[in-house]
Write a structure and sequence with these properties.
9 strands; 15% helix; 3-stranded antiparallel sheet; alpha+beta
Amino acid sequence: MKRVIAILIAAIMVFVLAACGGTGGTPAADSSDGSGAATTSAPANTDDGSNNADSTEIKGEPIVIPGKLYQLNLEDGEEPIITAVALDGNQLGGASSTGEINGKDPADEGIRFVFNLDEWIYIKVEAGKESGLAAYIVPHQNDTATYIDSFIANLSDDVTTVNLEKPAADDEEGIWGSTYVFNETNKPGYYDLVITHNLKPVAVVMLKLVPSESGMSDDEVIKLMADEIAAAQSK
């Protein structure tokens, strides 16, 4: 009887060992992420960004050429609000309208951009809107992408600004607004004249402000603007 029981026990152990051995070999790939929940491999990312919310983000353009009108936050198919700008001053360029410095017609390039600090800047525009427009003069930014909707809201109160209002039909000067950059709180250098509509930046022109009462002649101003444009285009 004991012999029979021993044989049965031995047979059971053989079957148990055989069952354990059947689970060997190459293990299946681990489908767990370690948290105990089963996971599957993520599909390859074939999205080109057209379905992302960020795909409508406005891409920037380097602001490198002074006196050129750059459009801001303009989406595909959208008409620009500001199509041309002219800037005059009351110090450099003399009081007469020569057409080389002051007295130019509004354009999208070749805009006067050299001014003394403390010099009045008279702004003329061709605009698709008649209200809600303003101009700000801020330190130069390298890329149009800087001028997002919240840029103006984050400016300090002492930034140079002026509301732009359409002049009367019989106003031959056609000035929408005027302002100047205060010499005592600002330094000579590059600045941006940013035009906004309802606080949204829509256009920008790069300026160069020289020391107050620089005494530059008309020829010197014209040469400086030509040299600045040539240097920017060669970059």
